[in-house]
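call fold target=ABC transporter ATP-binding protein
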Amino acid sequence: MIRVENLHKHFGGFHAVDGASLTIAEGSITGLIGPNGAGKTTLFNVIAGVLKPTSGHVFMAGEDITGLEPHELFHKGLLRTFQIAHEFHSMTVRENLMMVPARQAGERLMSAWFQRAKVRLEDEEIRRRADEVLEFLTIDHIADQKAGQISGGQKKLLELGRTMMTDARIVFLDEVGAGVNRTLLNTIADAIVRLNKERGYTFVVIEHDMDFIGRICDPVICMAEGKVLAEGTLDEIKANEHVIEAYLGTGLKNKVTAEGGHV
């Protein structure tokens, strides 16, 4: 579904993404791991149109989408969530979801004035859809709470719910488990797997929690210093010498090996 070819993103002399090439298969849940500073989030931002690449190309279903704006990619079904959730904190959880669908009749002044019945029917349908999403994510009990008052894990579920309010095809999740307790993290993992299996969503997940990655992701791609180091199952990635060096450093790897330990 997504093909990245020789992608570069430079900030002055710093090469945050340095010739990365990878493929995301349709229908997969792909994990993207790597040490801090590996270029994972920058890669996400370039693919999702938040940043323009210095060079290289991004294709979606064979179409060159390099440099398109986030709203253009949104309409193509490519969505990206952030490590820090971006909710409308003064609105309820349900209202946050109801804001998502594009081109609502109530947004047009003439419709609001002269097509009130149409606007009301559409609002009722969007509300019904939002309630279905909340039930699917098991957070329907907080539907009427202000989004700014819910927990960090619930905000991550709300972000996931926003992707369900549109015709998402591929969703990029950036550290969905950051600051989330284990119970809610399991709920998030279950929701991702269900969306993948039941609704055909493709996911790409940046995450440092290897248990979470191992539970839901296959394949796993490892980045370091702006490049793709390895791709495979999580066990294959953990056994890869280049990955070990990227995480631990050559010196530490040699020290552990010399002492008869395992890395």
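return ok
The longest strand covers residues 14-24. The CA atoms of residues 116 and 242 lie 62 Å apart.
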